[in-house]
Write a structure and sequence with these properties.
By secondary structure, the chain is of the alpha+beta class. Helices cover 39% and strands 17% of the residues. The protein folds into 4 domains: 2-68; 69-164, Phosphorylase Kinase, domain 1, CATH 3.30.200; 165-377, Transferase(Phosphotransferase), domain 1 (Orthogonal Bundle), CATH 1.10.510.10; 425-683, Beta-Lactamase (2-Layer Sandwich).
Length: 692
């Protein structure tokens, strides 16, 4: 700098002036509360970008060092945010950072937390979109929409907590799906049904930012839609554009990009619908999301978005008026029907697309089942026959014996495919239910270890102090907020939590005025499983289903021992819930296929003191089923079969198939290390579907 001042300054002074004006412009935009990304600011002043970038770095350093505004400081792994311990950074985008975290009280549970970038905190529009993203997701209830459990703010930093998806995004797996068009169709079908769920709610939600990066994957490849921050702003975007003093058509594509920035639109241009890209806001509707779904399918089939130019303006030009290369031309594995489905979604005329996301999902299901699709052409006898041949690829001119033989092979192949898919669904449901049971068992074990609870037992030992012990334990349980411990999914499924002494007498119940206080329940499985020698100190037992002594309802319980420092059993803590169609986030009413969850029946009777007869085979009851209502008085159906006897006798048994039986293929899958069994059923192909 000194050398420049001593020498020729004719070029230095204008450059210095440009830098000062650019910095003034930056702070003026921030003060006005405009939607503003500093990266765009650097692009606008490319010739002095190095100096401006250094200024931003210095500005950030001053803020952190002086702690003038703590909201601009970036979080680090190991810090505490709200009630959560940040473990590691998972991903970072333009406005948000996603962390893997765990609740401070329950380190066994792992979640994802999305926080705002420091550069976005001065942008009120960005904060609003961030909060709308969390609220929009929280209002959804679909297995393929990411689940949000908490939205909070601390020291000016907004964050929300959601379930952890450790499989990355669809954008990370595009090359995989290029070689697996069937897998791509399955993924898009599932997210299309999720988007249709959003479209058909009382408050119709249009996503408007569908792209591969917004489709998260679990470890077993199940997709979930996220990032609804732009969705709820669709009406606000239209009002912003209509009420603004700048045009669209007169400005060309660069002006249109500025329009997007001022309106708060953060959608990725290569996946944006033509009506949105062209600024035709009155045409933006649910069909714009159908285009987005088609763009995701296109990227999965080809490895690239539908339009991609050398610059944002060139890409926008392609979306509005460019010529689309057919997926089949880029990937020879894509057949005519799937190619037609994708192109129908990407039609520039919204009226020519599928009428809804559900219609797209249904057509993808037809393709997956090798049936004629709506996009592939007009119905005809010849076309139906061609697809029948595709589903049954055997020579038609062979003799009757050859036809029967080949038909048998076709039947065996179909049955094998059904068995494979059924086994996969059973494994998925068992894994999902095991995650929910793991959380329940963790919370139950944590509550039993509370020092105040153990003190209530140890301070009043002996039968003579039963009344004092009962009062002390009841006082502890009355002080416990059951919702805080067990309500992690927006609806507490537990009927009650109660505590027994070492002899099985009920000491306390969180249900006020319970008639069970003082009654003995030592014959129950939830008590018997914990009193034997060799039971691990921290063991939490998933008990067999039982008919409640108090209200005759069928319930299932989770229990664990309350123990002294020397491992002596002081009592037993039991949390139980009634049967129904859901357990926390596990909801069978949302499943398309027939599935239910079995639990062994506890035949003991506390009223008579009758234990389970020794040497008898267990009977099972269906404790979770899609057709069960929230009315817990429903009578569960009982199930007995040879395979269930095998599960009882062999704890290591994980799965076994019975089928065809009753016209169905039946798959059993054990839930973790518990006695719970997931049963998935699918109809057999004809003619096996006629078998008794």
């Amino acid at each position: 700098m000194a050398d420049a001042l001593e020498g020729d300054t004719t070029e230095f002074e204008p450059r210095e002036q440009r830098i000062n004006l650019a910095i003034f412009d930056y702070h003026a935009r921030v003060d006005r509360g405009e939607t503003f990304d500093p990266r765009h600011w650097l692009e606008e002043h490319a010739e002095i970008a190095d100096e401006l970038r250094a200024y931003l770095e210095d500005l950030a350093g001053i803020r952190v060092a002086t702690s003038v505004d703590p909201t601009t400081r970036q979080f680090q792994a190991g810090e505490i945010l709200g009630d959560y311990h940040l473990l590691e950074k998972i991903a970072e985008g333009g406005q948000g950072i996603v962390w893997k975290a765990s609740p401070c009280q329950f380190s066994e549970v792992v979640v994802a937390i999305k926080t705002m970038n420091a550069l976005s905190l001065d942008d009120q529009a960005a904060i609003s979109r961030f909060r709308e993203d969390a609220r929009a997701i929280a209002r959804m209830n679909h297995p393929h929409i990411i689940r949000t459990t908490y939205v909070g703010e601390e020291s000016g930093r907004w964050f929300f907590v959601m379930e952890l998806m450790e499989g990355g995004t669809v954008a990370d797996c595009l090359s995989t799906y290029q070689a697996d068009s069937r897998g791509a169709a399955i993924i898009v079908e599932k997210i299309a049904r999720a988007i249709h769920h959003a479209h058909t709610r009382n408050e119709s939600v249009i996503h408007l930012d569908l792209k591969p990066g917004n489709i998260l994957l679990s470890l077993d490849g199940e997709p979930k839609v996220t990032d609804f921050g732009l969705a709820l702003r669709s009406e606000a975007i239209q009002q912003t554009v209509e009420n603004s003093d700048f045009g669209v058509e007169s400005e060309g594509n660069s002006g249109l990009l500025e329009t997007f920035a001022r309106a708060g639109i953060v959608g990725t241009v290569p996946y944006m619908s033509p009506e949105m890209a062209e600024g035709r806001w009155k045409d933006v509707c649910t069909l714009s999301d159908v285009y987005g779904l088609g763009a995701i399918l296109y990227a999965m089939l080809t490895g690239r978005p539908p339009f991609q130019g050398a610059s944002t303006v060139e890409t926008l030009n392609g979306v509005i008026r460019g010529e689309l290369v057919k997926p089949k031309a880029l990937n020879h594995r894509v057949d005519h029907e799937l190619n037609a489905i994708c192109l129908k979604c990407l039609d520039r005329n919204p009226a020519a697309r599928y009428g809804s996301a559900d219609a797209l999902a249904n057509d993808l299901r037809r393709w997956l089942e090798r049936k004629p699709t709506l996009a592939g052409g007009k119905p005809s006898v010849l076309r139906e026959f061609r697809f029948w041949v595709r589903r049954n690829p055997f020579p038609l001119l062979l003799a009757i014996t050859a036809v029967l033989t080949l038909s048998g092979l076709s039947l065996a192949n179909s049955l094998g495919q059904i068995k494979f898919e059924n086994a996969r669904e059973a494994a998925r449901l068992a894994s999902q239910l095991d995650r929910e049971m793991t959380m329940i068992r963790a919370f139950t074990g944590k509550l039993a270890k509370e020092s105040k609870l153990r003190a209530a037992f140890e301070d009043h030992q002996g039968d003579a102090n039963f009344a004092r012990r009962q009062a002390a334990v009841q006082q502890f349980l009355s002080s416990v907020d059951v919702d805080k411990w067990f309500d992690v999914a927006g609806g507490n499924p537990f009927v009650n939590v109660f505590i027994l002494d070492e002899h099985g007498f009920e000491l306390a119940d969180n249900v006020s005025g319970s008639s069970a206080i003082g009654k003995r329940f030592d014959v129950r499985d939830y008590f018997q499983a914990l009193i034997h020698d060799g039971v691990p100190r921290d063991y939490v037992h998933v008990a067999r289903s039982f008919q409640s002594w108090k209200d005759n309802r069928v319930k299932i319980a989770v229990s664990t021992g309350i123990r002294s420092n020397d491992h002596q059993l002081l009592g037993v803590l039991v949390a139980n819930f009634s049967i129904g169609h859901r357990l926390l986030g596990f909801d069978l009413s949302l499943e398309l296929n027939e599935a239910f969850v079995l639990c062994p029946i506890d035949p003991s009777n506390p009223k008579t003191g009758q234990f389970e007869p020794p040497g008898t085979d267990w009977r099972y009851s269906a404790i979770l089923a899609r057709n069960y209502s929230d009315d817990s008085t429903v009578i569960p159906k009982e199930v007995q079969s040879p395979i269930l006897t095998q599960f009882q006798r062999d704890p290591k048994l994980r799965q076994s198939t019975i089928g065809p039986s009753g016209g169905k293929v039946v798959e059993h899958k054990r839930v973790g290390s518990t006695h719970l069994i997931v049963v998935s059923e699918r109809a057999c192909p004809w003619p096996l579907s006629w078998l008794p």
